[in-house]
Structures are given as structure tokens and as C-alpha cells.
């Protein structure tokens, strides 16, 4: 969320950051600050699902979300409103087989959110089509931003060659089995490849007893980027089939992390949207099976690796400056005829 705050401020927006609190049953401070800021605004720009997360029927914060929706219509009918959609929380929950957490009210809240805003900024045409079909939202409301920016201050080394004796593949993220799946069990063994993984909930993987799979533990975002930008050669993106279907609605935070770190990406071709980005920007290699990875890496020349890494550095510079966010918001302001002269055009 800090990235969105920074990038929007750079565009001339004033930010309002407020947390929901269970200490106050009706969350009056939360509503008061939001409604006061909306009352005096000319343009409302907010990020979904950060301001409203409607999935869990047992979540005590849902009552706050339901009340918030009632205020949305009055506010967004008066001012220009832009919703930057970085996730579809209901579909994400369903993609990890947690159907019991979602009910009719969750869909109702999401429908009202999407229908309340003038502009919906979404990753791609797949996400756009899903929202249109599910919630009957007008085609004219959409702007596509393609990639989630990563506003880190870490800059990877400008020069780096692929390791001759050992190639290291990084994976970052939450290792909860329900979320990740068990693809790690099928990682190919090769004399010159090691896998360095970071994140939480690692225990079940450590039981595999593989010396080529190393747990580096949890790292802060900046610490992680500093480490993998120097010590890893590739970043890998893989997931179970049900999550591959969900990934077609957008990219993952791993994608931005690897690119910002200057790491070429190894990605399953079944992750259709992410694979298309890797091809478009020339920033990695696609595999149909994990077993293909050793040959892909071993057959890669130093110049080919250098080209991929150079493309990563170029794209990473855009991510650090919020290029895709600013471009989408600027396009949205144009669509609403609300672009002010002093707002930069990225």
C-alpha cells in the first residue's frame, strides 16, 4: 500500500490513511476520516481490496465494510472516482479451495463496490471481462494497467554474469501448502542448480531433506531485494493448477519482486498472463514442465542471459517509479475530463 500512497502523492493527490478498529464497534473514526476526506475531494482514488475486503463471512470487520458501501454511492455520485483493482479477493479465496468462507453477501458487497466507481483500473482484458460478466459493469469504465509497480529504493547491480559453477534459483512468498501446492517436490535435481527460497510456513518443505533446496527464512522487502539481486540468478513462478487459472486475471507480487531485483524469470507456460509478460518484455524463460529447467539454464549463453537481465533492469526502473500506476491514473483522469494541468503525464 505504501507504493500507491507514494505514487499518488507524486501525482498531486493528498493521501488519507486510516485503519479499521475493532475497539469501536461502529468504527466511527474510520468513517469520519474517510467521509471528511471524500466530502472535500474533487477526485477519489482508492485501491481495492485494501479499503474494503468483503470475503470472509465470519470476519468481524465485514460490518464496517457493509456500512462503508452505503456511503460510497452518495460520495462517488458527486465526485470523480477511480478504483485501482489489484486483486479479486473472492476469486483468490476460491482458488485455494476455501468456498465456505464466501457467501452471497460477499458478492453483493463486491458488486456494489465495482458499480459505484466511475473508472476501474484493472490488470488486463481477462480481469475486465470477468467483472463485466459477473457484475454487469459498463465496458466504458475500464482502464488496463498491465503490471503492478514495485516502488523499492533498491537498485540491483548494473552488471552481473550468470554463475559458471552454480546457478541459483530464488522463490519468494508464503509457503502454506494450501496456497502453494506441492510442486516443490518435483523440482529437478542437477549438479549445478540450487534453490534458495524465502518466506514463512516452511516446515513441511524442510522435511523433504534435500540439500539443494535451501531455506533463507523470512526477509523484509528491502532485505529480500538486496539479497536476491546479488545472490540469485533467476526467480521462479509456479503454482497449482487452480491458482494458475486465477493468475490469468493479473500478475503476482513475485513478478514485480524479481523484475525489480534484476532477475530473469522462470515461469510455467500454464501461467498464461505472466508468461505473456515474460515473452513481451524478454525477461525470462518459459517451461512446460519443471523437468525442463536444467536444460533451459544450461543451454543459455552468457549473452542471452545478459540480454534478459538488461530487459529486467529497464522494466524494473519503470516499476520503481510507478510508471504503470501513473499511466493508468492519468488515462483515467483523461476519460473523466478531470486531468489538472499540474499533474505529470507518465
How would you portray this structure in words?
This protein has helices spanning 2-10, 28-39, 62-76, 89-95, 104-116, 125-135, 177-180, 203-206, 221-231, 241-247, 253-260, 272-281, 293-298, 302-320, 323-335; strands spanning 43-48, 80-85, 119-122, 142-144, 167-172, 193-198, 213-215, 234-237, 265-268, 284-287. With 346 residues, the chain is an alpha/beta fold. The chain folds into two domains: 2-149 and 322-335, Glycogen Phosphorylase B (Rossmann fold), CATH 3.40.50.2000; 167-320, Rossmann fold (3-Layer(aba) Sandwich), CATH 3.40.50.2000. It has a six-stranded parallel sheet with strand order 7-6-5-8-9-10. Strands 1-2-3-4 form a four-stranded parallel sheet. Helix 12 links the parallel strand 9 and strand 10 (284-287). Helix 11 (253-260) crosses helix 14. It is globular and about 65 Å long. The two termini are 20 Å apart.
Q: Which whole number gives the mean pLDDT?
A: 88
Instruction: Report the total helices.
Output: 15
CATH class of the largest domain: Alpha Beta
The level of helicity is 40-55%
CATH topology of the largest domain: Rossmann fold
Q: Compute the number of structural domains.
A: 2
Tell me the structural class. alpha/beta
Number of strand elements = 10
SSE order and pairing:
Elements (H helix, E strand, L loop, with lengths): L1 H9 L17 H12 L3 E6 L13 H15 L3 E6 L3 H7 L8 H13 L2 E4 L2 H11 L6 E3 L22 E6 L4 H4 L12 E6 L4 H4 L6 E3 L5 H11 L2 E4 L3 H7 L5 H8 L4 E4 L3 H10 L2 E4 L5 H6 L3 H19 L2 H13 L11
Parallel strand pairs: 1-2, 2-3, 3-4, 5-6, 5-8, 6-7, 8-9, 9-10
